[in-house]
Structures are given as C-alpha cells and as structure tokens.
Amino acid sequence: MSNIEELESKLDQNFVAIRYNVEIEGPAIKPENDSDVQNILPKEEPYKSIALAVLYGDMEASLSNVNDGLEAGLSPIDIINNGLMKGMDAVSALYTKGFYFLPDLMLSGDSMMEGVRVCEKILGHKSETKGTTVSFVAEGDPHDIGKNLVVMFLRANGYDAVDLGRDVPTSEVIKAVEEYKPIFMTGTALMTTTMTVFPKVVEELQKKGLEVPAFGCGGGSVRKDFVESFPMSVYGVEAYHTPKLADSILKDKKTWKELRKEYSKIVGEFVPEYA
Amino acid sequence: MSNIEELESKLDQNFVAIRYNVEIEGPAIKPENDSDVQNILPKEEPYKSIALAVLYGDMEASLSNVNDGLEAGLSPIDIINNGLMKGMDAVSALYTKGFYFLPDLMLSGDSMMEGVRVCEKILGHKSETKGTTVSFVAEGDPHDIGKNLVVMFLRANGYDAVDLGRDVPTSEVIKAVEEYKPIFMTGTALMTTTMTVFPKVVEELQKKGLEVPAFGCGGGSVRKDFVESFPMSVYGVEAYHTPKLADSILKDKKTWKELRKEYSKIVGEFVPEYA
Amino acid sequence: MKRFTRMIYKNPEEIIFGNAKFPVSERWNIQFGAGYVVPEVKVAPQEGSEASKEKMIGECRNIAQSACQRAVSIGLPSFMLEQEHVFQQTNYPEWAGECTQIQAEILERYYDEYGISVALRQTPADIRVEERAPGLRGSDYDNKIEESMEACAANGASDLCIESMGGKSASDYGISRGDIKAVLFGIGVLGSIDMEYVWKRIVNICKKYDCRPGGDTDCAQANTAMFMAGGLLDKDIAHTTAALARAMGAARSLVAVECGAIGPLKDCGYENPIVKAISGVPIATEGKNAVCAHSDLMGNLMAATADVWSNESVYHRQEMGGTTPEVWLQATGYEAALMNTALQTGTGETLRDIYTLTDKYRDPQGLILAYDNAYRIGKAIVNYGKDPYLRARAAALEAGKIINEAVDSGKLYLTRFERDSLDNALKIIEGLPLDADQFTDECLRTYTRKVPEFDPKSYEL
Amino acid sequence: MKRFTRMIYKNPEEIIFGNAKFPVSERWNIQFGAGYVVPEVKVAPQEGSEASKEKMIGECRNIAQSACQRAVSIGLPSFMLEQEHVFQQTNYPEWAGECTQIQAEILERYYDEYGISVALRQTPADIRVEERAPGLRGSDYDNKIEESMEACAANGASDLCIESMGGKSASDYGISRGDIKAVLFGIGVLGSIDMEYVWKRIVNICKKYDCRPGGDTDCAQANTAMFMAGGLLDKDIAHTTAALARAMGAARSLVAVECGAIGPLKDCGYENPIVKAISGVPIATEGKNAVCAHSDLMGNLMAATADVWSNESVYHRQEMGGTTPEVWLQATGYEAALMNTALQTGTGETLRDIYTLTDKYRDPQGLILAYDNAYRIGKAIVNYGKDPYLRARAAALEAGKIINEAVDSGKLYLTRFERDSLDNALKIIEGLPLDADQFTDECLRTYTRKVPEFDPKSYEL
Ligand code: B12
Ligand code: B12
Ligand code: SF4
Ligand code: SF4
Ligand SMILES: [Zn+2]
Ligand SMILES: [Zn+2]
Ligand SMILES: [Zn+2]
Description:
Low-confidence stretches of chain C: none
Strand content of chain A: 5-15%
CATH architecture of chain C: Alpha-Beta Barrel
Strand content of chain C: 5-15%
Bound molecules: cobalamin, iron/sulfur cluster, zinc ion
CATH class of the largest domain in chain A: Alpha Beta
Shape of chain C: globular
Structural class of chain C: alpha/beta
CATH superfamily of the largest domain in chain A: Cobalamin-binding domain
Radius of gyration of chain A: 22 Å
Strand order of the largest sheet of chain C: 7-6-5-4-3-9-8
CATH architecture of the largest domain in chain A: 3-Layer(aba) Sandwich
Order of helices and strands of chain A: HHHHHHHEHEHEHEHEHH
Helix content of chain C: 40-55%
Shape of chain A: globular
Strand order of the largest sheet of chain A: 2-1-3-4-5
CATH topology of the largest domain in chain A: Rossmann fold
Oligomer: heterotetramer
Structural class of chain A: alpha/beta
Mean pLDDT of chain A: 94
Distance between the termini of chain C: 19 Å
Low-confidence stretches of chain A: none
Mean pLDDT of chain C: 97
C-alpha cells in the first residue's frame, strides 16, 4: 500500500468536503409528472405528443410527430404554438427549478427548432415570433459560449434571435440595428479590453440617432459598475435571464433604466450583483 | 530533538525566503559624511552644531546649542533658517535615500520644533513659515497615524500645519478652511465608509464659495479612482509626498488638475498608482 | 479576576491548528478548536452603504448571501461570517441589531436547507476618542458601544468581538519614535487596564444571550507597529521593534480571556498563538489569505495554530471569479480544507511545522510567533502573570532573547537598523523599574506632557 | 514527429511539485522543475489600455514594476511574470515587441540589483476565427500570431505560450449538448491536428532566440467544460462530462511537447499533471490562488504536481493590500514558499498527498487529476500513443473507469445527472470505431452539418 492510500484510509471526508449536490437531491421523478409541467403541457393529442417529444429532446420523434400532425391537417401555426412551444415552456420550467440541465435544454431547443422549420416550410414564410433581437460578441473577443447560450435561450422562448457571431466589428453591429430594429440587443465580452466596445456601440448608435429599448451587456469580466457608466445598457448576469428581460420590455414596456432598477424582480431571483 | 528542530536542520533557507534588506545593505557611514548631507549642512559654527544636533535627533543638545547661539546674540530667525532647518533638510535627504528611518525623522523633527519654539519665544511671534496647511481624519474614522505622519512631514519641511485631529465633523473642516485659508489641505480616511466624507467636504466648500488650491486625500482604503471622481482633490500615496505636493503648489503654482497629472514627477519616484 | 500564572499547554508540541484545550460551541452546530479548522470570511461595506440604515442592511444581507452560496457550491462543511462594524453601525445601535438580524436569518436558512455549520461574529467598532473628554469611559460613544453589543447579541450574533483601543495614544507616540518605554506603557499598562473595562462589560452582555464572548486583538498597537514596519525594504519602523510590541501585545490581549472571553480570539491578533499557548482557548488567525487587505511577512506561519482561518476585510465588489465574499471565502475555505485533511490523516504536525518553517526566519516578527517561540514567550508571561506590566516587560525581553539566539546561531540576519533598534530597546527595558506603580508614575510624568492625546482619567490613573 | 508511447515517470509516487524529469533553464538564472517551485503572477490589462500602444506599454510596465517590488519586499527567491496578450497586442506585433521589451528591462533591473531569479512568459492571443475563411491557417490573423510570437522572442521573453483554439467549434457544440462524440472529435482529433500546426511554428521561432517554447492548454475545450460545469449546485454541464473532456485534453495538450515544447506548460492546463506524468516536462498549474478569477473544485490538488504555481489574470487595480500584481504575487509566492519548505525538509511527499486528498473526492474532475489517477490516464494515453484519436478515447475511458471505481468503493457519490451523463457517455465512447479515419469520416458527415462554425479545411481535412 502506497503512502497516499494509507493516508486516504484514515480520512473522514465529512471534515473536508461535502457534496451538497448529492445530499440535497430529492427522489427522481418523470418530467411529465412535475406539477408545473402538467399545467403547461397540452391535454389533447397530437399536441401532447408533440410537446412531449420536445420535452424529451427527441429530435426524431419531434419531427415525425410534427409531420403526422401536418398530414392530419393541423395548421402549422397551431402545431408551433400549442405543441412545440408548450414543450419548450415545460423545459424552461424544469430548468429553472434545477431538474433539467443545459444539455436537456439545448437538445429540446434543437428539437423544437427543427419542428418549427418544417412548419415554416409549409407556411411558406417565417412564423410569427415574439420579436427580433440581435446578439454579438465584442470585436477582438473570441469567447462566444455565453453569447451562444443567450441566443439559444432567446430562440427557445420564441424570439427571432439574430446571431452576429464573435469578434464583430462595431460597424456591423450598427448595421444590424438599422436592419432589424431589435426590441432588445445583447453584447457579450469576456475581457476588460473588449468590454470597452459597449460604450462605443452606444455612442455610434446615438450618433446615427438610432436606439434600442435596452442593450444587455454581459460576460465573464464585465462589471455592473462599468456597464452602468454609459446609457442604454443593462448589466446581464445569467444567460437564462435574457428572455425575461426581453419579455419585460415587450410586455411591460420596461425601459433600460427600469431594467437596471428592477433586475432582480424581473428575473425572479436573488442576484448578488444587484442586491 | 523535537520534530520541528529536525526539519529545521535540513532547511536551506535560500529556497524559501531571502532577506533582501540584509543582502543589499551597504557599509555603514556616518550621516554627516554623506555627500548630500555635506552639501546641505552649514559650514560655519554655531549653525553647524545646531544642524548636527537636529541631524542626530538629540533634543538636549539642540536646545543647548540654540540657547548658546541666542546668548551669543545671533538672530532667532537665522538660527531657525541657517541651523535648525538645515539640519532637518539633511534628515529629509537621508530619509529619502533610505539611510534614515521614521523614528530618526520623528526625533529630529521633535528636536527642531523645540528649538524653533525657543526662538519664537524670543521673537515674540511665530516665525515665518512657508505657508499654512490643514489636515484632518474623516468623521467616523479613528485611524490617525497616516495623518500624524502627514502633519509631521509638513512641519519638518517648514509648513505651519494645523492638525484638526481624527473623527472630525465636516463642519469643522469647513470652519478651518475659512479661518486658515490653507495653501494645501489633507484628508485621511482608512475606510470605504469614511472616505465618502471627502466629496462632501468639497461640496460644502463649493457651496460656501470656498476653495483650496488642492485637497490631498489619502489613507489605507482610499482608491485613486474614487478620489478622482470629484473635483479639487488629489490622491495622496505616501505621507512623505505631502511637502513635495505643497511645495509645487507654492513654488510652481500647480493646480489640483496638474498635481493629478504630474504626481509621479512631482514626488520624484515611480508610484504604481499613478503609472 | 483570575490571572494566568501557569501554562495550560504543557509543551509546545501539543499546540496545533484545529485543536484547542477548551473548544467552544456556538449555535448552528459549530465547534471551534474541536478537531477541525473553520474558515472565516469578512468583507467591508461598500462606500455609500453608510448613507442609510436600509443601504447598510442590504449590504450586510448581500455579503451573507454571497458567502453562503459559495460555501455550498464548493462543499465547505462549515464557515464563520464576521462583520466588522463601521462607525454608523455602532453609533446607531438599531443598525447593529438589524444588520445582525438579517445575516443571522440568511445563515440559518442555509443551515436548515443544507445542514452546513455556520457562525456569525459581530465586531462593533471601538468609536471612543480618548482625547475628547470624558474619553474612554462613560462618553456617549462609549455607551453606544455597549448598546450595539447588546443589540448584536440579542439579534442572532453567535459571538462578539472588539478591537479595543486603550493605550493607543501612548503606543502610537512610542512606535513612531522607537520609544520602547512608551510602547510598553501603552500596551502593557494602559492597554491592559482598558481591556478589563471593556471586556467585563462584554462578558456580562453575552451571559444574557446565546452568544459567546469571542476576543480582542492588539490591532491598535501591535498591528499598527507591524503595518508601519511594512515590508523588508520599508524604512519606517524597525521590524525588531514591531516584534517586541507584538510580544507585549500578548500580555495585553490575554486580559480578555481573563475577563471571560472564551474564543475564538479575533483573527488579526497576530499575538494569538501566544495567548493560545497560555490559555488553551481557540483562536482565529489570518495570514496568506489576507493579502487582499495587507501584506504581512508570516502568511503561512499564522496558520500553524489557527482554529479559525480568516481573510481580512476587503472591498465589497465584483471580481472575475465572483463577488469578494465568494472569492475570499473560497480562499480561506480551501486552506482550512487542507488543514483538515492533514488532521484527518494524522499529518497535522508535519503541516504545522512546514507552515511555521516557511516564515520562521523571513523576519523577526514571524520568528517570535513560531509556536515553539510563542510558547517561550507565554512562559515568560505567566511567570509574572499577576502583574500586567511585568508580564508585558518579560514578554518583550524573551522576544529579544529569541531574536538574539537566532542571530547568534546564524539563522536570522538583521539589518543595522533592526540590530541597533533591538539593542537599544533591550537596554532600556532591562533598566526599567520592577515595580509597576513606580513605572506608571514615571510614565505619567513623561507622557502626559509628551503625548497630547493621552488622558490618564481614561484609565482611572 | 516523436509520439509518446511510454511513460517517462516509472511510477506515480515519483511525481511531485518542484521536480520534473527534464528541468528547464531560462535566462535570469531561473530553473523550473529543478527542486523548487516558482510562483507566477499575471494581471489583465485594464479597460482602456487597449486604446493605444503607449497606454498598453505603460500598463505592462506598471504590472512588472509592482510585481518586482512586492517580490523583493517579502523575500521571494524567484518568480515568473506572465502577460497574456489581449487582441491588440497580438494583432499589432509592434505592440507585442515593445510591451515585452519594457517588462524584460524591469525584470532585468531587479535581477541585477537584488539577484532575484526571474522569468518573463509571453502568451500571444490565438485570434484566429475558424468560421471566417480562410479559417485557422494562413489568414491575416494567423500571420499576426506568428509575427507577434517572433516579436516577443526577439525582445526578451524568456518563454512563449499560447492557448490555441483548434477544435473549439466541435467541442463547444458537444459540451453544451452533452454530445460526447463531438467533444472527442473536437479535442482528440481536431485539437490535436491544430496543435501540430501551431506548435511546430512556435518551436521554430524559439530556436532563433534565447527563448523557450513553453506549452499550451486545453483552455478552449476542457476549461470551457469546467467553467460551464461550475460549482456543485450548478445545473449546466455534468461534472462527469467535464472530467472526460479533461482526460481527452491531456492527449491533445501532449502534442505541444511532442512538437518540441519543453515547459513549464501553461498554468490553466488542468490536464497538465497527466502530461507531466507522461512526458517529464515541468508544468505550471493554478488552483486555490486563482480564486480571483474563477472557482474550481480542486484548488489544493492542483498544487501537488506544480513546478510553477500561478494565479489567474485578474483585474489590474488597487486592493487595500496593494495593487493586484502585488497582492496576487504574494499569494502565489507564499504558497510556493510552503512547497519549497516541504521539499527542503523532506516532507514534500506528505504535503503533496494532503494537497491531493483535500480535493480528490470533492468532485469527479479533481478525482481524475489526483496524481495517482493522472498517472493511470497517462498510461492509457501512451498505450495508444501514436494515434491522437485513440489515445484521447482511451483517456476518457480510463477516466470513466476511475470515477466508477471511486463510486463503487463508496468514496465518491454522484448525482443522478452526473451518473446518467457518465453512463451515457461511456456507452457511446465504447461503441466508437477503433479506426481514426473511420471515426473522422463519421464525424465529418455529422458535424459539418450540425456545427456551422466548423470548417474541415482549417484542419486540412
Ligand atoms: C474558456 C475560456 C477561454 C476559451 C474560450 C472558448 C470559447 N468557446 O469561448 C479560449 C481558449 C478561446 C480563451 C482564450 C483566451 N482567453 Co479566456 N477564458 C475562458 C474562461 C476560462 C471561461 C469563459 C467561458 O466560456 N465561460 C462560460 C460562459 C458561459 O460564460 P460567459 O460567456 O461569461 O457567459 C455567462 C454570463 O456572463 C452571461 N452572459 C454573457 N453575455 C450575456 C449577455 C446578457 C444580456 C446576459 C443577460 C447574460 C450574459 O451568461 C453566461 C452565464 O449564463 C474565462 C474565465 C471567466 N471568468 O469567464 C477566461 C477569460 C475570459 N480569458 C481570458 C484571457 C486573458 C484569454 C486570452 C486573451 C489569453 C491569451 N492571451 O491567450 C485568450 C483570448 C485570445 C484572444 N483572441 O484575444 C481572461 C480575460 C482577462 C481580461 N483581459 O479581462 C479570462 C477572464 C480568464 C481570467 N483571467 O479570469 N479563453
Ligand atoms: C492599525 C489599524 C487599526 C487601529 C488604528 C490605530 C491607529 N493608531 O490609527 C485600530 C485598532 C484603532 C483600528 C480599528 C478599526 N479598524 Co483598522 N486598521 C488598521 C490597519 C491595520 C493599519 C492602519 C495604519 O495605521 N496604517 C499605517 C498608516 C501609516 O497608514 P495610512 O494611515 O494609510 O497612511 C499612509 C498613506 O495612506 C499615506 N497617507 C494618508 N493620508 C494621506 C494624505 C496625503 C495628502 C498623502 C500624500 C498621503 C497620505 O501616508 C501613509 C504612508 O506614508 C488598517 C489596514 C490598512 N490597510 O491600512 C486597518 C483598517 C483601516 N481597519 C479597518 C477596520 C474595519 C477597522 C474597524 C472598523 C474594525 C472594527 N469594527 O473594530 C476599527 C475602527 C473602529 C471605528 N472607530 O470605526 C479596515 C477598514 C475596512 C473598510 N471598511 O474600509 C482596514 C482597512 C483593515 C482591512 N480590512 O484591510 N484599525
Ligand atoms: S486589523 Fe483587520 S481584522 Fe484586525 S481588526 Fe483591524 S480590520 Fe479587523
Ligand atoms: S483559462 Fe486563464 S490562464 Fe488559462 S488561458 Fe484562459 S485565461 Fe489564461
Ligand atoms: Zn486589527
Ligand atoms: Zn483580520
Ligand atoms: Zn490560468
């Protein structure tokens, strides 16, 4: 027996580290048995099956359900709104509660989007979305996962999220605002030396007399105090906050000033940065 | 032999910690043999002895030298300017070079001040100083050593430094400015929650139409960015910088804006906070 | 009042982190010195939070919440939150009560939900001003301290501390001039007198509640010397002078325990290893995870004897790695975890010894606090245990001896400034009277004149 | 190109901090892995410093100067300064050169004046953008990286590193969906291919100067997984998935060494213990003194095998305890001092083991990097050493086995999410083809469709 094994044999781990994630885990339940999910899921078929396939992130089942529905003469709009989107709503609820995880969300999102695409082909045009948003990663910055999550959350929540990519020149951001007139724009930067792009974007917009209702700025090194040092902006903390911010702009006509003040309330949880 | 002794016997300290202070120490020299000191010290007696007593921080010798000089009919003003102050200038030079330490400085300062007091008694009034300064510790703050050093350095360099003490209400600071019209004011705060007094002081001054050429703000928790967020102020780093700042106001008519820009140059050394 | 005249520890080898002869239990299922080390975190309220009670409460809530969140997120079995009051929190006892209450609520919620062991330390500020009559006793400020202490105890603090300032006037004068007699007077005599006044009161308050009297620190004196001494290349105070002040500080901080404080003693008392060796109470210490706030020359050594391992109040703000309560609790939490692993695996003594040796010869200040040397100073103190002055004097002499021995054996090298300051100080101390009253009289004559802030009435002298 | 098919270390017990089979010397009298641990510090340039070359140079000077000052002020025998370039420093090679030059000058001044051993690491940024043709090879950005590298080497860098991004497109897709096949493709195949391209070039540049090729890190992939996995209570990526990605990352980061990198490998390569076990080169690691920048679940464990002990780029600003270069160098400096004391006193193995055990069962990611387990993964890799795909696959399978053994022996408990993700991943990996070309073909078919950013031409596929 080597020395580390000998030491290890004496160790009572409870004095060193506690895996609270394991300690607090409740019993396993099937996702469709969760009470919130039951409230969200449609009762009638085939919507129920369509939603369930999304809930399970099962792309194949989702596609065949959607095709079946279309063949049975259901309207593509109904399939999207009463089936696919409901499934996604249920997924979001489970994610918020901590029963579902990011990969679930991503796979469900993929399943939903595939279904929507099929429906849109039948429709012959893009389906109605809640609104258009624009997202980008600052020029000179390669870190794009946060932005990818933001875009995914927006799409999963029914927004038409335009993704400009990473290392995006400021001029392209301005062009996109002119073109899409987004109801919300998000910028991600993970470096002290790239977050400085945000105020430049605002300045350029103002020069051209353009405006967005709010410009969510987030990313690993970005600080609230920095973001609040220029106008139009709101400091964004978690990617899954994004659709809540967008919703509150859309539904409650919140301005960027109000978003700053009511952030915690709008996203519905304690946010240390905003306490 | 206990275990720690056994371990200790194996230890080659050069791999753990190096006492660079010991490593770089040059040979001992007598203070009066230092070339800068020789340039500063008066050549003629009794000024030379008076200055030397200050240089050695020898209060008794200083007093008796001064008394001897006065009895011999020298003017109190000459004793102060050509004797006591020269000694102090030499002390400052040695402190700046790192040959002298704070206690040397304090004791020399005490010796000089005692001598000055005796001369002033003969004069019948306060001796001419370079100018008046006002120093205080912010309301609610008990930490006063930094302020005490600031005051000591100012006095040692020929300023009439008014010391308002610690935990000083803002109203008293304003009153002192009205009364003394200082050429420089210093505030010390060592806490995040007391440095907020500084902008309040400035606001109150402005309300009353008062102004000081510059308001040096320093202390353990105070940050440059904070100090530069309101007008009239200069972030102060080391207590021994204070007389250099005051001198540059006095001689070069520097404004607080210039002090901010030229801080490193004025104090004559690399200051990380200003780099 | 009981005075320590014998060592509770019978030999230095017994002293080790996470273990104290007299462990302390506090609510929320936490023990100190009972075989494991507890990490501590504290964060200074942001600028502006002092502007209103509501802001300060929000600030305190936020600090507690962030710390709890990180604790469970990295799997800490236990931790202590300390809040060091700013002026307003103590000057308005209502603030003290409500800030404590919100933090207690949050800690309790995490205790209930996760079973994590927690503790809440409140440290009201010593806002007394000696030079403003009536000085240290009976002033408005003095009364506010008492009320704040009670408000904390009544509203959920699991223990109380203070950094009391008695004797600062004289010691400040002495430290900045290398006048070791003034330092000894300020710490050994005045500091010890004031401690009795302050601590009898705190102990009485704690008796009424489920709240423990923690401890004091010689921050106002020995830490002041340490901070002014600075790094190796600083040219202010000799590090040997600071070492002597520290040794004296142990004689003074011991008074809290003699009045009934049971620990864990307050983190910034770098003299705590000595007090632990004498009295057997658990101690908080800080060192290499206090870099956020200051630079000491014994970052590892201070862990060797810690029962609570702390950071130091830091700006409350965002770091890339989270907010500062999160970041710094993680820092102390991981170090405590290392110590606990060592204790669990029977390698605690080895870790203690390498912690110690890392800094033992970095600087004279660390040298005298190495647990073997701390023990020696403890013995010097208890030899004169009944006399606060003589024991502080003995502590300084023993510290000087320890330094000289290390120099003689070629393990520690001093600069000329350190060497001269030490020789000079030891010569003076050796020449001092062996009678406390005589010493006090002499000092009263000298320092009431030389130190304008010093007010004998504050010490009933 | 040489491939590792045998372990340089003959058994895991030989692996310990401060010692590598193949120590590295750099100018300014510093050695890595030669019996002592070197502390490292790095600080991110402030916002706004990117606005002009002059500002950036001032910023770099300031960082170097502060670090040097603190180093001598606390008595550090040696340290390494790293500067991770921001976009502009790499995109304008002139900036790279001049920033390096000023830092080299300052370090040299301290080396001359105090005799302190120093090193200057420069890490140009991988600014290539795969999804923008011509992608990873031959684009303007790609050429700028080369020029910047050369400018650094010519102006005083003592070694060069990079965090290269090859394969990120596929691995990002896979990590966020728990698609382990995409992760393996991104790391094991694409990452390894790109590493060859990047590293042959760096090694060639270094040959021309007194500058060493340091190493790479799987930051873009394994760290991304680790960061997204987050703390114990986060609900994004399963920590078991992140552990598998880390194991694969070792197979990929090894390529730098195979191309001629000699270490110390770059600090944030948490896979470095595995690479060290295989190749014997010194490594930089980071952990509990990187809390400023991120929260990992193995803060102590990563010290067990460190030859250079680092913080992580932090805001450049003032703390109460000094500026951040000072504060964080003191943090890593004190930890390195502890390790060096242990090495000196013959207790290094004990410290290594308690470092390791502190985090071994905190999380599956730490478990597989414990030096004994790292060694096992290393063996799995060299068994298939000649085939980058198969060795990454073998690494993941071995990591899975290690986790399952710990679970079976009751030492580690997994959540359902971790359990399911692991079972699922292992099942998929086991079912993958044993032929690299076949695997690559399959993946090309799947992921060119699913991952819009992925461009096979960037890998000459
Ligand atoms: C992984 C990583 C990389 C990977 C990135 C891979 C990828 N796919 O993106 C790679 C290897 C490419 C990389 C490279 C570099 N990196 Co890097 N990297 C990281 C690291 C470790 C994690 C980033 C990450 O993906 N996090 C996970 C994602 C999900 O988080 P996120 O993007 O922040 O998003 C979250 C929130 O911010 C929020 N959010 C984001 N945007 C928005 C918007 C809105 C509206 C809302 C509501 C929310 C929101 O949502 C997410 C949470 O849900 C960070 C550390 C850190 N603290 O972030 C360093 C970090 C960003 N990198 C850093 C550095 C220095 C670099 C390099 C410059 C180093 C170098 N010289 O080589 C290079 C970049 C080179 C270049 N081109 O300039 C530094 C930046 C320091 C600085 N100057 O400020 C960091 C901070 C590390 C550190 N020191 O702490 N890096
Ligand atoms: C010693 C000390 C004390 C002693 C002070 C004794 C004394 N004689 O002053 C005592 C015990 C009283 C004390 C008490 C407290 N303290 Co205290 N204390 C310190 C400590 C450790 C050192 C301070 C010191 O004397 N430094 C040496 C002097 C020389 O430095 P300085 O004053 O900063 O001056 C230097 C420069 O700033 C400059 N300077 C200063 N002013 C100016 C002006 C100009 C113009 C210029 C050019 C230069 C300049 O010159 C000097 C250098 O040459 C600091 C730590 C630190 N980082 O500073 C904490 C510190 C200030 N204390 C702190 C705290 C929290 C407290 C308490 C509130 C704790 C409590 N709850 O009990 C209490 C205060 C109670 C109250 N009344 O409110 C915190 C403040 C945190 C915050 N909120 O921001 C600090 C920062 C510790 C920490 N966490 O890092 N403390
Ligand atoms: S030194 Fe630090 S820990 Fe100690 S009392 Fe003062 S502020 Fe608190
Ligand atoms: S994780 Fe940190 S150390 Fe590693 S490369 Fe990315 S920024 Fe640098
Ligand atoms: Zn203190
Ligand atoms: Zn402390
Ligand atoms: Zn790193």
